[in-house]
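User: Hello! I'm new to structural biology and keep hearing that structure can be predicted from sequence alone. Could you demonstrate with UPF0223 protein FN924_07615? Please show me the input and the output so I can see what each looks like.

Assistant: Of course. The first part below is the input, the amino acid sequence of UPF0223 protein FN924_07615. The second part is the output, the predicted structure written as tokens.
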Amino acid sequence: MNYSYPIDETWNKQEIIDVVNFFSLIEKAYEQSVKRDDLMLAYTRFKQIVPSKSEEKQLCGKFEKDSGYSCYRTVQYAKDLESGETVQMKKNR
């Protein structure tokens, strides 16, 4: 991993931990697999911290540019799965 997670310096310590957790689950969905419920819970928390759609697009866009992993495609794919299933992404999905 030769990139860093995008964070906002105005976030408190717990918010940074929660956002980093979300990005790490996105990363893990591409490199291994993650439980759909864990990813959706992390996304819900991410949206509490980043409620603005434009800020979400900006942060996730930077993350995708740096890592090649799409938050949007991963979350959309996870939304289509049933509770208890796993999310396993491919770079071209």
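User: So the tokens describe the shape?

Assistant: Right, they're a compact way of writing down the 3D structure. Reading them back into a model, for example: The mean pLDDT is 94.
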